[in-house]
């Protein structure tokens, strides 16, 4: 199975085109107000349209109301939604009725939630660090026995360590942001290219 590669924290048309040109399968647009990489729905829409339909456009949300999520996702023309934070199963399913969902869990959440979403239509799990976007990798060795089959992996990934992470856990997709930047919200072309190539060759 070919791993999917997502470049998150996209804040401009320029960086969207850069990441798509490097071979990314998906772009992440962060709509959580607390993020240093917050982007407007209008900019996300323009960036998404600039790369064409073959690249997935994923809206990233943190504990935001259902109406806000759906309204923003529609305005931004995203193709999927990524949900962070402590959320009810009903809420996740309500979003999944409209968009494919990447449900983000921390290692501490796995025991309680991983089984709940294993066969849920429209919901794919992603494992991330306790502080998303912080650049700190997870302890992959400690997760070997509990990492859900078919899940995505995030948390401190970059060109130098994505191959090791994939070897340890065999994720269906990998997601990176902070280790691909020249500064918060601005991508480094060489790091993006090297990350995609490292993931593809692993």
TrEMBL record:
Pathway: Amino-acid biosynthesis; L-tryptophan biosynthesis; L-tryptophan from chorismate: step 3/5. It catalyses: N-(5-phospho-beta-D-ribosyl)anthranilate = 1-(2-carboxyphenylamino)-1-deoxy-D-ribulose 5-phosphate. CDD domains: PRAI (cd00405). Keywords: Amino-acid biosynthesis, Aromatic amino acid biosynthesis, Isomerase, Tryptophan biosynthesis. The keyword Isomerase applies. Residues 5-198 form the N-(5'phosphoribosyl) anthranilate isomerase (PRAI) domain. It comes from the Bacteria. One of its GO terms (molecular function) is isomerase activity. Pfam families: PRAI. Belongs to the TrpF family. This is N-(5'-phosphoribosyl)anthranilate isomerase. It comes from Deinococcus aquaticus.
């Amino acid at each position: 199975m070919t791993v999917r590669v997502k470049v998150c924290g996209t804040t401009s048309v320029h960086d969207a085109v850069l990441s798509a040109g490097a071979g990314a399968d998906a772009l992440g647009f962060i709509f959580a107000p607390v993020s240093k990489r917050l982007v407007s729905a209008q900019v996300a829409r323009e960036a998404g349209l600039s790369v064409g339909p073959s690249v997935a456009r994923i809206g990233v949300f943190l504990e935001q109301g259902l109406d806000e999520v759906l309204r923003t996702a529609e305005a931004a023309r995203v193709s999927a939604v990524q949900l962070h934070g402590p959320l009810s199963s009903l809420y996740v399913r309500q979003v999944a009725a409209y968009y494919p969902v990447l449900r983000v869990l921390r290692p501490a959440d796995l025991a309680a939630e991983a089984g709940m979403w294993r066969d849920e239509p429209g919901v794919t799990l992603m494992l991330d660090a306790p502080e998303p976007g912080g650049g700190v990798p997870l302890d992959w060795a400690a997760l070997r026995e509990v990492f859900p089959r078919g899940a995505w992996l995030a948390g401190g990934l970059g060109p130098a360590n994505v191959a090791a992470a994939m070897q340890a856990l065999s994720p269906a997709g990998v997601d990176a942001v902070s280790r691909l930047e020249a500064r918060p919200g601005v991508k480094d072309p060489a790091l993006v290219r090297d990350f995609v190539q490292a993931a593809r060759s692993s």
